[in-house]
Amino acid sequence: MPEFQTFPIPKARHYIDGRFQDAVSGETFDVIDPTTEEVIGQAARGGESDAHSAVAAAKRAFARGEWSRAKPSFRKEVLYRVADLIEERSDEIAYLQGIEMGEPVLDSEGKVAFYVARSAQNFRFFADEQMQAGDHAFNHEDRLMTYTMTDPVGVYALITPWNGPFMLSTWKMAPCLAYGNSAVHKSSELSPLSIQVLCEIFEQAGLPDGVYNSLMGYGAEVGPPLVSHSEVAGISFTGSPATARDISARVSTSLKRTSFELGGKSATIIFDDADLDRAVTEASLAIYLTTGQSCVAGSRILVHESIYDEFLTRFEAEAKNWIVGNPLDPKTTLGPVVSKGQYDRVMNYIDIARSEGRVLFGGGRPDNLEKGYFIEPTAIVDAPNSARICQEEVFGPVAVILPFKDDAHALEIANDTPYGLAGYIWTESLERAHNCALRLETGMIWINSGFVRDLRQPFGGVKDSGQGREGGQFSREFYTETRFASFPIAPRRDD
What we know:
- This protein is an alpha/beta fold.
- It is 37% helix and 21% strand.
- It has 15 helices and 20 strands.
- Helix 5 links the parallel strand 7 and strand 8.
């Protein structure tokens, strides 16, 4: 196996008030490498006391005003340094993500995984955006002038998942911090290592102590006291609908701000006039990139019946191009799923699918990989859209492919799901594309394009895929408070 540079494996500890700390209880839990199935480290097992300590530190930092009342230019300077340091340590971040959750260290072009580069971009974008988010003034009837004031809100709880753990964490914390708030970040217990680098970067960049705080531990143990804390003003959560409902119930009487980005069972719709070469390639990327462990994965592929058989043949051939293996091997394009629990879950769905339809290809462990949580790229056919494999989020490298008769039938299938996060439309007809987009019940739609994230876009879903939007002005609204003051002015003319 070609070598990718290795780095020391840190102990995953809390980062509270500018210091790395063990859990108050002294307890830890094991960090498992999904490639080797071996213990590679320890992480602090946080609880209620740790959560309260982190919130208290964040609240004190907010009240001091070193960050919350700082000049936007100062916040931009610090966040730009954060971005620079992320790029400087990109190999280390990619390595730690590779051993903690199986993310390949390089992309198909031989560059460090784009998720790491995107993390730096997140900070630069919102550092600039908060500079442009100026206040406004307007005149009412030549008698009353009003000006607005945009202020940070307070302490936010940011709860992030294990897939793309570094980038998805920066996706939330970049706007949260850019607008002057303080944060308590709960990362997943399955991917705690790379976040240690981020804590060091914040310290080196000059972020004041207590503005960013990181909690390690199991979500069921440290999550409830964090989201329920009276000093937490808002919660941004990415994860399952079940956990979002639990959070909603816990904060229902407190009027906290909430933003939920949840699961998906997104449809890639391929019409008979599509550029099939591009559609096949992008449909493969949409489900197999990140081993299918993406909320926006195009896990249902809907194909017009006139090109259905040709698509199956070409899609299977495209799937064979994915190189399954050790994520530290630069040649690998598809690593393991994150954990034994996730491996069992995905394999169970494949077993269910065998009774609901037919496995077109894949469906097992690659022959040359006896250890690790590896699953072949898999496709299921001949299953009705009512089947569990078509309705439930698998979160693995498993596509289900369904034929459709016409535009109305395609939309009927696509919308027949409890989810509504993303959608992908492939057609050469702009009229058809826009008509389909109008009727597709999903928060985000890409036409003749794979997933491309522009941070100005309103990211979020409908139905069980979430509530609220983040990105650009939508993040500004979530992470800021807007007030106004009015005063009389002399009229410009006599009445």
